[in-house]
Every structure is written in structure tokens, then in C-alpha cells.
């Protein structure tokens, strides 16, 4: 490991750019402009003297936590990346990274012969819906993983009478409630392989059931899906759940860029990182967000969520800045506070949790919870505009 760090340092010096005064300028490249990547790029320009480039496949920032609202017919804010980056000095490249040459420290792009070199790479490529695990899902199901997916689902729902939402996690719960509230004539069915709200407190589970009953959402619990068809779902017990539209919210996958580049990854393709969110195999690479397999000091894996992504981005870039300045990074300190679940526009559930994300009995529900959740969601955009705002990390 020590020889890898020494080689890394020599390579950084050799590859760095020469400034007007002859000094060597490091190059930090961020791949992905989601919640963590955008914040990381802006923090890197503020906390280091490096030249920072941000590469993203689209020119807009996507409020992923609101995509169920977009699918339900609501209009979301237009957030051009150029506006969010204005005045920061970050170079924006709108293109898709197709490959990483870890030895040469270069990135290949889909729409350009240009290769982008880096001294330090911040890998924030996010995740997408996993539509490959069940036959028929890729052909017949709709997801809520990105803006285009949500718009396709919105168009489909205009012609639908019955929709089946597969998955009882937070995304599935929010989608089912939002669609039912926004479209009272639409029959909404939620199919969960376990029990609804299994990770919530008893009070939280009871509120979910009352809300779904009020909205007319039909529950099918302890039901594994083995096939998706044009007319609905086939369950593991052979039963058929009729639906003319299927929304798939079960599981996420990450791009295979890291694995193909030779970075150490886990079984899901996420970059294995240390407490500073550096790749354990390539310390010049920092991985954050859904594509990083980060852990708390206790060893507990951090779940995919804004609640972990935003503070971990702050910590990771601060650690990188400290290393570049010869300082010793601060240790990782993280604890969970709550889980916020929207249940339409007039209701929500805020489940307060212990530091390890296990539920407390305390919850906040109803309109106050809806306001609380809305404040949290809006604060993510405030954070993207001003990413030095303190977080819970």
C-alpha cells in the first residue's frame, strides 16, 4: 500500500499542469453531477487550489428525490448546471464517460475523441434502477431512477387504469402514495416481498397503513415477483396481479466503470473505500454517493440516500483537501437522525432513528411531517448552491 501511495504522488507531480508562475496545478475531475458530485466539485474549488472539471451526461441537475412527483404530473424546477456552477470556476463538460484508464489517469468520453486527464478523480456516478433481476421487467416495467424515466411513466399513466408498484422501500411507498393522491381514478397496488414498513416503528407502520387505506392503495405483502408481463405481475406462488402499468422500485445497480477500470469493488460494483472515501486500491480516486461502498466506524454500511451522500461528500472532499495541504484528515463521524417519507402533498412520515438507523418509537405525521419533508428536500438545493452549509456528519 505504501509503495502505491508513493507511485501515486510521483504520477501526480508528473501529470500536473503548469500555471503561469511555473507552479504545478493539480487536476481534480468529478464524474457525475448528482447530489454528491455537484457538491463535491464546488467544494473542491473552494477548499483546494486545483483545477476542477465536472463531467455529466446531461446539462441539468435532477432532483431525484422528487421524481415520483414528476411522474404524478407535477412540474419540477428547471436547474441548469451552468446556473448552479456560475462563479465557481468549475469547468463543466456535458458528455458521458465510457471508460477509465487507471494507469494513465485518463477518462474516455462518448461524444468526443478528447481524453480527460486527472491527478485526482472523484467518482460520483450514482445508481440506476435494476431491471435485470426479474424476467420481463426491462421490457414491461417503468422506473423512477432518472428524469427521462419519470417522464415516460407520466405519459404512460395518462392511458392507465391500474398501476402496480413493485417494492415496499421508501421509493415504492412514496410513488404509490403520490400516484394515488394525484390520480384518484387510478387503481394503485403496492406489491412488497416483505411486510409494509418493516424497518419502521410500530407507530410508523400503523400510519402507513392508515394512509394507504385512506388513499385506496391496495397492499399485497409477502409476495415475491417472478415475472413482469404486459398485463401485470406473476408472483412466486403463481398468482397474477393485474395491471396495465408496472412501476419497478426494487433494487439499484451502479455503472460498471469502476470494475472495468480495475478499482476494487464489492459484489454490487461499488467502489470499496476507506474512512476518507478513497478507493482502497487506487488512493487517487475518491468515491462518494451510491457508487461507493462506505462504512461507519462501527463497520455498518452506509445506505444509499441523500442523508448519507451529502455529508459524506463534504467529508471526502475535506479529507482530500487536507491531504493535498499536508494536513491529517479528521476521522469519519456519522450518525443517522431520521427517515423522511412523503405520502402525497398533504401527508408524510418522519421516522426518528437511532444513530445506527434503527427506528425509535417517535414519529411525526400528517401536515407537519409533510412540511418537514418539504423543508428537507428544499434544503438539498440550498446545499447544492452553498455546499459548505454544515451537515450532520
Give the helices and strands, then pairings.
Layout: H1 2-15, E1 17-18, E2 24-25, E3 27-31, H2 35-47, E4 51-56, H3 67-71, H4 81-84, E5 91-94, E6 97-101, E7 106-109, E8 115-117, E9 120-123, E10 128-129, H5 137-140, E11 141-142, H6 147-157, E12 162-166, H7 170-182, E13 187-191, H8 202-215, E14 218-220, E15 225-229, E16 232-235, E17 240-242, E18 245-248, E19 252-253, H9 257-261, E20 271-272, E21 285-287, E22 292-293, H10 306-324, E23 338-342, E24 348-353, E25 359-365, H11 366-385
Parallel strand pairs: 3-4, 3-9, 4-5, 9-21, 11-18, 12-13, 12-18, 13-14, 20-22
Antiparallel strand pairs: 1-2, 6-7, 7-8, 10-19, 15-16, 16-17, 23-24, 24-25
Helix pairs in contact: 2-10, 2-11
Distance between the termini: 28 Å
How would you describe the shape? Answer: globular
Unreliable stretches (pLDDT < 50, length at least 5) are 1-22
Instruction: Kindly state the number of beta strands.
Output: 25
Total DSSP helices: 11
> Which secondary-structure class do the elements indicate?
alpha/beta
Strand numbers in spatial order across the main sheet: 5-4-3-9-21
| Average pLDDT figure | 90
Q: How much is the radius of gyration in Å? A: 22 Å
Q: Helical proportion? A: 25-40%
Report on the biggest sheet: 5 strands, parallel
β-strand percent reads: 15-25%
The protein's oligomeric status is single chain
